[in-house]
């Protein structure tokens, strides 16, 4: 029986889920709020008492050691415990959402698929979780490092407690904005990793790069790549490196899978 090669099928692009990104952002801000509350309750309140009682006698090195101890305690209590929980929930939701959408589009195109976790996928997902854990811990530790510096600056400026309160508020706002960036960035990266793994599982070797056109200052190379075909295993060669859509920071590009059709 003769084998007839059909025209390749192009599936619709699958984009990172906005709801999952929002949920991830809320989890980061909740973590920030928990740490911030303890900073105010444990560190700032106690510091105010010490500053009022021992303003003239407090040794600088004693303050530094005490603040460092509190910061380490808070980092361990919150980010070390919650980071894996937040990351695993985020990646799990991303996988479930992607598989559901892909199955729907494959079915509409006349294909039936059953997903299995291959060793490659398992490694890719574990790496994604570990990367998320690292980002979350970094998010928390950077906030606490700034708290530590702000307390120290308060001491060296003559216990300006009003100034400390202002700086802590600015610090919180900085971290809150960073939570939004991390959620958007990690949402795109996790989506890209899962998409690449699923394509390789299904034997999809080519895709079409799509620029999102949502950035005010787009990468020109990504804009020029719009509509071009690339190999899934490599990505697109842009600006001297092989990249997948959505993998670089602030990259919102996506892609459409190309399925080579073979019939009889």
Describe the structure.
This protein is an alpha+beta fold and 264 residues long. It has one domain (16-204). It is built from five helices and eight strands. The chain has a four-stranded antiparallel beta sheet, with no helix packed on it. Helix 1 packs parallel to helix 3 (119-156). It starts with a strand and ends with a strand. Mean pLDDT is 86; it is low at 1-5.
Helix content: 55-70%
Derived structural class:
alpha+beta
Whole-Å distance between the termini? 7 Å
SSE topology string:
EEHHHHEHEEEEE
Main sheet, how many strands, which sense, barrel? 4 strands, antiparallel
How many separate domains?
Answer: 1
Strand order of the largest sheet: 2-7-3-4
Number of strands: 8
Chain-averaged pLDDT: 86
Number of helical stretches of at least 4 residues: 5
The unreliable regions are 1-5
Oligomer: single chain
State which percent range the strand residues make up: 5-15%
Defining traits:
264 residues; alpha+beta; four-stranded antiparallel beta sheet; disordered N terminus
List the helices and strands and how they pair.
Layout: E1 4-5, E2 9-10, H1 18-54, H2 60-108, H3 119-156, H4 161-202, E3 206-210, H5 220-224, E4 229-231, E5 236-238, E6 241-243, E7 254-259, E8 262-263
Antiparallel strand pairs: 1-8, 2-7, 3-4, 3-7, 5-6
Helix pairs in contact: 1-2, 1-3, 1-4, 2-3, 2-4, 3-4
């Amino acid at each position: 029986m003769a084998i007839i090669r059909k025209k390749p099928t192009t599936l619709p692009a699958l984009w990172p889920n906005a709801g999952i990104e929002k949920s991830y952002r809320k989890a980061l801000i909740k973590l920030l709020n928990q740490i911030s509350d303890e900073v105010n309750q444990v560190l700032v309140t106690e510091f105010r008492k010490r500053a009022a009682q021992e303003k003239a006698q407090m040794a600088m090195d004693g303050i530094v050691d005490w603040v460092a101890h509190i910061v380490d305690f808070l980092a361990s209590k919150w980010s070390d415990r919650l980071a894996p929980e937040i990351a695993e929930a985020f990646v799990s939701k991303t996988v479930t959402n992607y598989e559901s959408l892909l199955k729907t589009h494959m079915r509409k195109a006349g294909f039936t698929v059953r997903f299995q976790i291959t060793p490659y996928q398992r490694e890719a997902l574990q790496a994604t979780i570990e990367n998320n854990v690292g980002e979350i811990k970094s998010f928390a530790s950077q906030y606490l490092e700034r708290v530590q510096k702000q307390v120290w600056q308060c001491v060296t400026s003559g216990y300006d407690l009003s100034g400390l309160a202002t700086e802590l508020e600015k610090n919180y706002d900085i971290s809150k904005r960073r939570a939004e960036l991390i959620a958007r960035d990690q949402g795109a990266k996790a989506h890209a990793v899962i998409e690449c793994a699923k394509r390789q599982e299904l034997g999809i070797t080519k895709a079409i790069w799509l620029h999102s056109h949502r950035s005010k200052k787009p990468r020109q190379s990504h804009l020029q790549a719009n509509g071009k075909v690339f190999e899934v295993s490599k990505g697109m060669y842009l600006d001297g490196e092989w990249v997948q859509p959505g993998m670089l920071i602030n990259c919102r590009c996506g892609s459409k899978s190309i399925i080579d059709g073979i019939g009889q």
